């Protein structure tokens, strides 16, 4: 939790213009209307979206009307409170299967979102509870098997893969069967990157879902969109499209460590009300953390944990 806060804060501080620095720079002064405008611009730049920015700024403005001595730090606290309220309910958990079937986590998303890295990070977290299988269902990209094989080797996790070009749904079937036979508690399926606007590629996801459901009608228990925070507001359209064709149960937001565009997750939550399960804060296996509203909201406004 502390690390989410710290990393996110560092990420924001690093971006062009230093969004966080701008807000934190106001902490010890009495704010004026120009400062409120600066907060507004900073939040818009970070892709918080018009509705969220309006809610935050009007809360600060009404406090400023009441108290002309309002300090920047208090304004930031008000902002963090409003943001936390907007995100109320956004923390979520992975769902587990009933009985002895593996609990399936199927990761989907556009090219380069961070699916494979996230699959590995999840395998590390879930493997600690006993028994995880990584399923290499990206049979499309040439080097996909090598990449996930290397992660599995490093983490000491069991991997099920098939040949490059094989049917992804058939691979998902094999992965499930292997996880079940091996008594694994979790099955984490990596899938190929696909553009949400390509119907045939989205259809492949529906096929994976159908095939898994033949083994266990409740599988996949988790249909998770992996989304790159640096895409900002573009990610909302993506999330909507994946949700429509795949019926998402949650979202994992990656690359929150290196972007000033981390605001889009508020927009996604506002619109789709899908839980944000984890956030990616770096490229290493240990850089995946549970989403924590308080740490995120305080990080955005440069406040202490
Ligand atoms: N800084 C940072 N980099 C990340 C994070 N997650 C993934 N990456 C990097 O993003 C790049 C793409 O990650 P992949 O996991 O290969 O993405 P993918 O979605 O599997 O990509 P495709 O399979 O090609 O669609 C890699 O260089 C990762 O190291 C994160 O949370 N933070
Ligand atoms: Mg991949």
Could you characterize the architecture of this molecule?
- The chain is α/β, with parallel strands linked by helices and 305 residues long.
- Helix content is 49%, strand content 14%.
- The chain is built from twelve helices and eight strands.
- It has an eight-stranded mixed β-sheet with strand order 3-2-4-1-5-6-7-8, sandwiched between helices.
- The longest helix is centred in the first third of the chain and has 17 residues, at 50-66.
- The N and C termini lie close together (9 Å).
- The mean pLDDT is 91.
- The structure holds guanosine-5'-triphosphate and magnesium ion (MG).
- The site of magnesium ion (MG) has 5 residues, from helix 6.
**Main pleated sheet:** 8 strands, mixed
- Hey, roughly how much beta strand do the residues contain? 5-15%
- Helix-strand topology string: HHHHHEHEHEHEHEHEHEEH
Our measurement of the CA-to-CA distance between the termini, rounded to an integer number of angstroms, reads 9 Å
Please state the structural category. Answer: alpha/beta
- Order the strands across the largest sheet as they lie in space: 3-2-4-1-5-6-7-8
Principal-axes shape call: elongated
């Amino acid at each position: 939790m502390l690390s989410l806060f710290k990393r996110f804060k560092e990420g924001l501080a690093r971006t062009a213009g230093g969004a966080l620095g701008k807000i934190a720079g106001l902490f010890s002064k009495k704010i004026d209307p120009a400062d409120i405008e600066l907060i507004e611009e900073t939040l818009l730049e970070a892709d918080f979206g018009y509705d969220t920015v309006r809610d935050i700024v009007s809360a600060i403005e009404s406090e400023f009307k009441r108290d002309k001595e309002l300090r920047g730090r208090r304004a930031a606290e008000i902002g963090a409170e409003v943001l936390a309220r907007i995100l109320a309910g956004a923390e979520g958990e992975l769902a587990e299967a009933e009985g002895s079937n593996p609990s399936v986590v199927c990761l989907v998303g556009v090219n380069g979102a961070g699916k494979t890295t996230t699959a590995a990070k999840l395998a590390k977290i879930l493997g600690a509870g006993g028994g995880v299988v990584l399923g290499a269902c990206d049979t499309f990209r040439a080097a996909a098997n090598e990449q996930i094989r290397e992660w599995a080797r490093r983490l000491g996790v069991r991997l099920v893969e098939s040949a490059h070009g094989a049917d992804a749904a058939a691979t998902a079937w094999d992965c499930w069967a292997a996880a079940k036979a091996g008594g694994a508690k979790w099955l984490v399926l990596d899938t190929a990157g696909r553009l949400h606007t390509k119907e045939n590629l989205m259809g492949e996801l529906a096929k994976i879902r159908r095939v898994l459901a033949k083994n266990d009608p409740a599988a996949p228990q988790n249909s998770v969109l992996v989304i790159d925070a640096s895409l900002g507001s573009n990610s909302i359209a993506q999330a909507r499209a994946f949700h429509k064709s795949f019926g998402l149960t949650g979202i994992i937001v990656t690359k929150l460590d290196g972007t000033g565009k981390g605001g889009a997750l508020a927009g996604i939550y506002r619109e789709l009300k899908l839980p944000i399960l984890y956030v990616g804060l770096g490229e290493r296996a240990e850089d995946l953390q549970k989403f924590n509203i308080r740490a995120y909201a305080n990080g955005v406004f440069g406040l202490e944990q």
